[in-house]
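To assess whether ligand presence alters the predicted conformation, the chain was also submitted together with glutamine. Input:
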Amino acid sequence: MQASVHPVSKLPQVGTTIFTVMSKLAADCGAINLSQGFPDFQPEPALFDAVERAMWDGRNQYPPMSGLPELRAGIAAKVEALYGARYDADSEVTVTAGATQGLFTAIAAFVRSGDEVIVFEPVYDSYGPAVETVGGKLVRLSLSFPDYRIDWAAVRAAIGPHTRMIIVNSPHNPTGSLLSAADLRELAALTAGTDIIVLSDEVYEHIAFSPEGHQSVARLPELAARSLIVSSFGKTYHITGWKVGYVLAPAELTSEFRKVHQFNVFTVNTPAQAGIASYMQDASHHLGLADFYRAKRDFFRDAMAATKFELLPCHGTYFQLARYGRISSLGDRAFAEWLTREVGVAVIPVSAFYADGRDDGVVRFCFAKQEATLLSAVEHLRAL
Ligand code: PMP
Ligand code: GLN
């Protein structure tokens, strides 16, 4: 159909997200899809049973706007047990339609036209467009290469009177780097005495491999007091398609967050919430996740040692970065497309996470897959 109006795009630089592009190309070519991040195995049957039970129990209508009370209580208990932070289940925990909605709503609730938001590249692709949709201005800083750490002196220099928000992500997608306790102390020190809100994307909180483990901003009271923490059950329970997540924040921030949330999604899928709440009562699932994915990471890295890819360190998430300079001199997008079409393995080009297309010759593999899937992908890659 021909449109009769031609509005000026709010997001002129934005095309279709790289995850959709690469997963479609993988499907079109019949390639093994190690691009978009999702498991190719099933969650535990107990989770299905719990959701089914909820439906038969008649839990099929709107839940409370902020989420089912038993789910919010379960989240608050988990966070206190892990990070020692107390969030009030009624006024400081909100269930969202995945982390994506939590992030977008948090940005929409606090960022005004002209406000600056500091992000770190390579940056997860949903933050920038959310900021720009509400008229905010992105201040893009680079993580160091190839260890992907934050340069705190650069952050100090970038903070100004218009800085409204700093967005951090640990464990970090796409690089697998982690913020340390020292990083969090830097962030706390730099924001002390300011009105800056910290938006902390912690969706891979249970997939951190270092002995220090995941450093949640919830661990530092002075940081938690200015932060919204976003997480997602998609990563933790192998249910990325269910789109259930949550946002933690002090009551005053949560109250503003919910003003937008209620008109953004209003509520989140009731049987899924009820099922997750019941499944969560057995508190062991998330505790085994780091070991589960560490084994997959090590399996994948061992297998990849027989290829010409050069693997970067992976300290968390279910993503593995690799340089491909010994195989090809193509740019990373062209390389990812070629690999998908000609070799039968789909990956994500890391330049997609830089606004200026910076290309370090690095691609991202997702190893949240069955060993057979990983082995057959590596079988293809060994031929290169
Ligand atoms: N943040 C990061 C860093 C992610 O990797 C993802 C999803 N892969 C999300 C947010 C979105 O999570 P959800 O699917 O729960 O919306
Ligand atoms: N976050 C997932 C990834 O990094 C994908 C989610 C999405 O497709 N938006 O691959």
